[in-house]
Design brief:
2,3-Dihydroxybiphenyl 1,2-Dioxygenase, domain 1; 8 strands; 130 residues; 4-stranded mixed sheet; alpha/beta; 21% helix
Length: 130
């Protein structure tokens, strides 16, 4: 078994695609029309880092409860972890693109790390080797 997708609630598909693909460098794996369980139009949008098996299913908030979860899917904790082989290059790319960082990069026993927010406001760790 493996985890293939993790759902990430976003406000708007195209802005989220631009962030994950244009800013973070993910691949757009799929962007297909789909329907909700009650027949309304939606999109099936999957992005993932190059070479990764697990992707993000970008899901547009549907209703007040989901809209309230957008940007806070993990209760304010870091809930997503992006590993970069070249930490410094990825960090520079993200800084230049205007990504919001919550501090400066630091070195921990497990490697380099800095916390950032995605397009919805969720906290991520950008991680790299020591």
């Amino acid at each position: 078994m493996r985890v293939s997708l993790v759902s990430l609630v976003v406000d708007e598909y195209d802005r989220a695609i631009e962030f994950f693909v244009g800013v973070l460098g993910f691949e757009l794996v799929e962007d297909s029309p789909s329907l909700t369980n009650d027949g309304r139009a939606k999109r099936w949008v999957v992005v993932r880092p190059p070479g990764a098996e697990t992707g993000l299913l970008l899901t547009r908030a549907d209703g007040e409860e989901q809209a309230a979860a957008s940007g806070n899917q993990t209760g304010g904790r870091v809930g997503f972890f992006l590993h970069a082989d070249d930490f410094d290059a990825q960090y520079r790319r993200m800084v230049e693109a205007g990504v919001e960082f919550l501090g400066e990069p630091r070195t921990e026993p497990y490697g380099r790390v800095v916390v950032f927010r995605d397009i919805a406001g969720n906290k991520w760790d950008l991680l790299g080797p020591r």
